[in-house]
């Protein structure tokens, strides 16, 4: 199967890429992460995705769209719903790209992270797939979390310390008493 892999970052895409290839799928990466903050973090993750793609000989489509204002406009009133918006917007973009470029299916490296909500990602991916007429390929890539970490360190990939948005950055770095 010819699959488009939404790539949130190099380290998280590495293991899913290898697993998909081991199952005889042809994989192309798709980097679209308009939510990452600050811009330097966005650029580092984009570069790590490109480094991983080059090292693994994976074609990578980059939708280089940094849209902090759009992200905040969609989540500022209800920051507790930010992950749902983030998942849906990136999965919709991946589904649209997969449909436009003739892929049989699309999936996401978000499914590698044990910190993401898999049921919600799967539901939103399937909705986006129906909307754009392309299958959403679900697989739980969390099974070899440690192996993915080992591989990404071995490749020398930049490994981020938080999910990506301004809210997750705050949750990661703000002192606990100042987080509310």
CATH classification, class level: Alpha Beta
Can you tell me the residue ranges where pLDDT is under 50 for at least 5 consecutive residues? Answer: none
Strand order of the largest sheet: 3-2-1-4-5
Main sheet, how many strands, which sense, barrel? Answer: 5 strands, parallel
Query: Which series of helices and strands comes N to C?
Result: EHEHEHHEHEHH
Please compute the radius of gyration using only Cα atoms. 16 Å
Separate helix tally: 7
Count of separate structural domains: 1
Q: What spatial form do the alpha-carbon principal axes imply? A: globular
Query: Which fold does the CATH topology refer to?
Result: Rossmann fold
- Helix/strand structural class: alpha/beta
- The fraction of residues assigned to DSSP E strands is 5-15%
Overall residue-averaged pLDDT value: 92
Spell out the CATH superfamily: HUPs
Query: Which architecture name does CATH use?
Result: 3-Layer(aba) Sandwich
Strands, count: 5
> What is the CA-CA span between the terminal residues?
46 Å
Helix proportion range = 40-55%
EC number: 1.17.99.6
Protein name: Epoxyqueuosine reductase QueH
Keywords: 4Fe-4S, Disulfide bond, Iron, Iron-sulfur, Metal-binding, Oxidoreductase, Queuosine biosynthesis, Redox-active center, tRNA processing
Function: Catalyzes the conversion of epoxyqueuosine (oQ) to queuosine (Q), which is a hypermodified base found in the wobble positions of tRNA(Asp), tRNA(Asn), tRNA(His) and tRNA(Tyr).
């Amino acid at each position: 199967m010819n699959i488009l892999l939404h790539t949130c970052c190099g380290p998280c895409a590495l293991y899913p890429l290898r697993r998909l290839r081991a199952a005889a799928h042809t994989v192309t990466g798709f980097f679209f992460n308009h939510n990452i903050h600050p811009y330097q973090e966005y650029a580092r993750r984009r570069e790590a995705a490109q480094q991983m793609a080059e090292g693994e000989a994976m074609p990578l489509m980059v939708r280089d769209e940094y849209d902090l204002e759009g992200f905040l406009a969609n989540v500022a009133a209800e920051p507790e719903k930010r992950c749902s918006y983030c998942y849906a917007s990136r999965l919709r973009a991946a589904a649209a790209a997969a449909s436009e470029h003739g892929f049989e299916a699309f999936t996401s490296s978000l499914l590698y992270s044990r910190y993401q909500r898999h049921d919600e990602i799967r539901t939103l991916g399937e909705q986006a797939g129906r909307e754009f007429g392309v299958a959403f390929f679900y697989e739980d890539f969390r099974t070899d979390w440690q192996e993915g970490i080992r591989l990404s360190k071995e490749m020398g990939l930049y490994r981020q310390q938080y999910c990506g948005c301004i809210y997750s950055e705050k949750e990661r770095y703000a002192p606990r008493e100042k987080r509310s």
